[in-house]
Design goal:
Largest sheet: none
Shape: globular
Helix content: over 70%
Number of helices: 12
Distance between the termini: 32 Å
Number of strands: 0
Order of helices and strands: HHHHHHHHHHHH
Radius of gyration: 19 Å
Strand content: under 5%
């Protein structure tokens, strides 16, 4: 019961700083992308170039076939774009506290919003990339689908998941520097363990459940079900229940751990 109270007060604490949060997200976004000559071009250059390289390798190198009526490039983009957000948000969110040590030492500043700032900045690019993939489908001749209305649901699920992880990892990162390296390794493993450029049907059915334990699978598959397979999220009750359960657990755990470690941040930094 005490943990739930701590969690409630923690969220209330964040709610009252929402205006400051929006301001910091805008400032962080401008600092990252609007201070260079090419500005926003760099925000899209890296994910799109990586996407094109993977597409070229698996289209002309390994000769990956189209998935039904969907060209391989569109199928690939449907999985890569949510992964870009997951990996980028967790990576930047993990270092949110140590990279803003000067703010942590200010008594009146609400430190809990720092991971949210990094996630919010990454979310702006993610939403732009989602619009990009929608335009791609339209250019390839696909008509708008009613299933596209569930995109906000999967984006929201993704935000809740990465926020819980970021609260947990960013608070521990203050005391254990190895956390950043560990997260980098786990994200590399997660990329190859998530069916992004390969189909989970390639795995024997008796072993597929192992890969479905990865929370990123639900998001990636959700985007594919939205654009390619035309399946509603409630038609996957088992994976939906599992993802919501593990994300809720990480969300609460991350918030409570962050709240308990927060008073010691200034001493360590």
């Amino acid at each position: 019961m005490q943990i739930l109270k701590e969690f409630y007060y923690f969220l209330e604490h964040i709610f009252y700083t929402r205006q400051l949060l929006v301001t910091l997200i805008k400032n962080d976004f401008k600092k990252q992308y609007l201070g260079s000559y090419f500005g926003l071009v760099w925000a899209f250059a890296q994910p799109l170039s990586f996407l094109l390289v993977i597409w070229f390798v698996f289209t002309y190198g390994f000769r990956s076939a189209a998935h039904g009526d969907t060209p391989y490039f569109l199928w690939l983009a449907s999985g890569m774009i949510p992964w870009f957000f997951i990996s980028g948000a967790i990576s930047s969110g993990t270092n949110a506290i140590v990279s803003n040590a000067y703010l942590v030492k200010k008594v009146s500043f609400r430190v809990s919003i720092l991971p949210l700032v990094q996630i919010g900045s990454a979310l702006i690019i993610h939403i732009a990339l989602v619009f990009f993939i929608v335009i791609l489908y339209l250019l390839y001749g696909f008509n708008p689908s009613i299933y596209w209305v569930q995109l906000p649901y999967f984006i929201f699920c993704c935000v809740i998941f990465v926020l819980g992880v970021s609260w947990l990892t960013s608070s521990i990162r203050v005391f254990v520097k190895d956390v950043s390296n560990a997260i980098g390794v786990l994200l590399q493993i997660g990329f190859w363990a998530t069916p992004i450029f390969w189909n989970i049907s390639m795995i024997p059915s008796s072993y597929q459940w192992i890969f479905k334990l990865n929370p990123a699978y639900y998001i990636v598959q959700g985007f594919r079900d939205t654009f390619v397979n035309h399946i509603w999220f409630w038609e996957m009750p088992n994976t939906t229940f599992y993802f919501l359960s593990i994300s809720s657990f990480l969300f609460v755990l991350g918030a409570v751990v962050f709240k308990r470690l927060r008073p010691h941040f200034g001493d360590v930094l």
